[in-house]
Design a protein that fits this description.
With 216 residues, the protein is an alpha/beta fold. 55% of the residues lie in helices and 12% in strands. The longest helix has 19 residues. It binds cytidine-5'-monophosphate.
């Protein structure tokens, strides 16, 4: 039997990996898991109970309770939850529990698309395709501001940029599973690319990997 089409997508916050992951999952008819939601679910439970984000025993309990079939995207998307998620994500036992659930999801006969920070390096090191999606911090801040404004909100560019840089530093600087491209990842810098162009580039990479797998 041929290797399943597992697509691992990593990159910093706001680089466009979520959109890309959904488009690829649609295109290849694969199940998709946004692994950021699992860290967000842990953070959300701590916040809801008034527990400190560094409270490892409660964070571990919250991680065990994460149910991949029941991740409420609307609640978990809040900006404050993302910020809190990057704090609980430094706790090794939390990572171990969530990574095991993510691996179980990835082990589907036809394959799956997972996006996050450590999918190509730790969760699915054997993925058939690994993409590392980036964009400059300025471009990511500009996109986030445009998104906030499109939803009738307002924000300040400098504050958003500082926020993004702080999150990058935390995700890339942690000791356990820091954000970095896997040695065999394809780098996709979307700073100067539309979503459509990024999708077409990613699809070409996946099609190439499939052709090699199938000996075409
Ligand atoms: O991608 P998202 O912004 O939802 O992720 C929230 C936080 O969860 C990230 O900043 C990161 O600290 C953590 N995370 C992680 N590993 C993953 C996915 C997310 O550490 N695979």
């Amino acid at each position: 039997m041929s290797r399943p089409l597992t697509i691992a997508i990593d990159g910093p916050a706001g680089a466009g990996k979520g959109t890309l992951a959904r488009r690829l999952a649609d295109c290849y008819r694969l199940p998709h898991l946004d692994t950021g939601l699992t860290y967000r679910a842990v953070a959300h439970r701590l916040l809801a109970n008034g527990w400190p984000l560094g409270d490892a025993p409660h964070a571990v309990e919250a991680a065990r309770l994460v149910d991949l079939g029941n991740l409420d995207k609307a609640t978990l998307s809040a900006h404050a939850v993302g910020e809190a998620a990057s704090r609980v994500a430094v706790i090794p036992e939390v990572r171990e529990i969530l990574a095991a659930k993510q691996r179980a999801f990835a082990r589907q006969p036809g394959g799956a698309v997972l996006d996050g920070r450590d999918i190509g390096t730790v969760v699915c090191p054997d993925a058939l395709v690994k993409l590392y999606v980036t964009a400059s911090a300025e471009v990511r801040a500009r996109r986030r501001l445009a998104e906030i404004e499109a939803n009738n909100g307002s924000g300040e560019f400098a504050a958003i940029l500082a926020d993004i840089e702080r999150r990058d530093a935390r995700d890339m600087g942690r000791a356990d599973s820091p954000l970095k491209p896997a040695a065999d990842a394809h780098l996709l810098d979307t700073s100067e690319m539309s979503i459509e162009a990024a999708f077409l580039a990613a699809r070409a990479i996946v099609d190439d990997a499939l052709a090699k797998r199938d000996g075409a």
